[in-house]
């Protein structure tokens, strides 16, 4: 496995997932979003607790300046045998292909463009690792761009703790010279803060920081 590193963001190649499976997965994702609206209607939902849902824009619909700029399908993948039954039934090979894919793939002050490498996975470090590493790793502040020339299809896989999982700086990284920077908290509490923070890192992390 080879990792190409862009400050807090990685592109991983030679990862063991075949090019054909990646191509098939991206094709089936595009096929899903190109389905007629009536075939996707039952999946549309604004309920954050719905396991498999299709929605537009982002968590921050009420505050974002531009609406309907993207369509997002979100569903859990693990454990596969339990979750696959709630996935879309169309396209007909969606569950087969995405199931195979899921079982395998488990500048300062300025935005820097990252050109994706063919068949590489882009890996972003999240806030949980920033907290567990006691600030040694940084959650990647990132964004995606649209353009007027062609549609963009992304398959994003999130590895999240269970709701009741307690997150805190790793004991091995904390000592008298490196005191903990963050409180211990349950992931479910963090997620509530995150969804209300409109993407601002300080707003996300401040409630979980220990006072200096």
From TrEMBL:
| Keywords of the record | Iron, Metal-binding
Keyword Iron in the entry? The reply is yes
A Pfam family of the record is DIOX_N
Q: Where is the Non-haem dioxygenase N-terminal domain?
A: 11-89
What is the name of this protein?
Hyoscyamine 6-dioxygenase
**Which Gene Ontology MF annotations are present?**
metal ion binding
Keyword Heme tagged: no
What positions does the domain Isopenicillin N synthase-like Fe(2+) 2OG dioxygenase occupy? 109-161
């Amino acid at each position: 496995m080879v990792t190409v590193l862009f400050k807090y963001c990685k592109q991983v190649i030679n990862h063991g997932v075949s090019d054909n499976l990646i191509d098939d997965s991206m094709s089936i994702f595009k096929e899903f979003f190109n389905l007629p609206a009536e075939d996707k209607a039952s999946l549309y939902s604004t309920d954050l607790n719905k396991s498999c849902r299709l929605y537009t824009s982002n968590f921050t619909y009420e505050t974002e300046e531009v609406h309907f700029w993207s369509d997002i399908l979100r569903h859990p993948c693990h454990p596969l045998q339990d979750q696959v039954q709630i996935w879309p039934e169309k396209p007909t090979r969606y569950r087969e292909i995405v199931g195979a894919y899921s079982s395998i793939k488990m500048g300062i002050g300025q935005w820097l463009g990252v050109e994706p490498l063919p068949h590489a996975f882009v890996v972003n470090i999240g806030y949980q690792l920033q907290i567990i590493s006691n600030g040694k790793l940084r959650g990647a502040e990132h964004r995606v761009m649209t353009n007027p020339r062609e549609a963009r299809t992304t398959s994003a896989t999130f590895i999240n703790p269970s709701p009741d999982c307690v997150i805190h700086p790793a004991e091995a990284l904390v000592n008298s010279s490196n005191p903990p920077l963050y409180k211990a908290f349950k992931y479910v509490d963090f997620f509530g803060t995150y969804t209300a923070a409109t993407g601002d890192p300080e707003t996300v992390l401040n409630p979980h920081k220990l006072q200096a």
